[in-house]
Amino acid sequence: MALRLHHSPTSPFVRMVDVTLLETGLSDQVERVAATGTPLDAGDLPLGLNPLGKIPTLERAEGAALHDSRVICRYLDDLAGGGLYPSKPRLWETLTLEATGQGVAEAAVLMIYEQRLRPEDTRSAPWVEAQWAKIARSIDAIEARWMSHLAGPLDTSHIAVGCALGYVDFRHGARGWRSGRPALAAWAAKFHARPSMVATAPV
Ligand SMILES: N[C@@H](CCC(=O)N[C@@H](CS)C(=O)NCC(=O)O)C(=O)O
Known about the structure:
By secondary structure, the protein is mainly alpha-helical. It contains seven helices and three strands; from the N terminus they run βαββαααααα. It starts with a strand and ends in a 5-residue tail after the last helix. It binds glutathione (GSH). Glutathione (GSH) binds next to α2 and α3.
C-alpha cells in the first residue's frame, strides 16, 4: 500500500487523521503500523521518518514522510478533494479553531506525561494545573465565540475540537469539562455520534 500511517489507537492526533480518512473515504487506502513510545523511551516510534519521534507520521511511496497531524490531514483532504478546508476568509477561522483543538489535545497529553513519566517526587502539581488552565480557557473560548462556526459545514476544525474533547473525556473525564459549557457539550454529544468518531473512539 502506498500510504502507511504510524499509529496508536489512543493518540488524539492519530484520531484526527483517522477521522479525516473516514470522512474523506480514504480509510481503506492506508496501512496502519502500530507505534508506541514516549519521550523517555521511543519504543517503536518512527524516529527514522520523523526526527521528532512522534505519531502520527505518514509514509508515502514518493517524497518525505509527512508530519504532524495538521499536515497529514490537509494532505489527505487534498488527495481526496474532501472539502474540509473552506476558502478564505473562513479558512483563517477554521485554521485557528483547529489550532485551538490541537492545543487542547497537546495540553491534555502533557498532563498525562507529567503524571506517568516523571518519578513521583519530581512531579509538579502546579504545572499540571497550568496545563488544565489552558484547556479550560480554550473550551470557555469555544463556548463563547466559536459555536456558530461549529454549527456550520464540517471542516478540519470540527475534527480537531471533537477529537481533543474525546481525549479530555478519555483521560481527564473526572474534571467534568461539560459543566458551565452547555452549548459545547450539546455539540460534542452530536459530533461524537458521527460514525467516523464512533469507529475511532479510544479504548
Ligand atoms: N503536534 C503533533 C503532536 C503529536 C504527538 O504529540 N504525538 C504523541 C502521541 S499522542 C507522541 O508521538 N508522543 C511521543 C513523544 O512525544 O516522544 C501532531 O499534531 O501530530
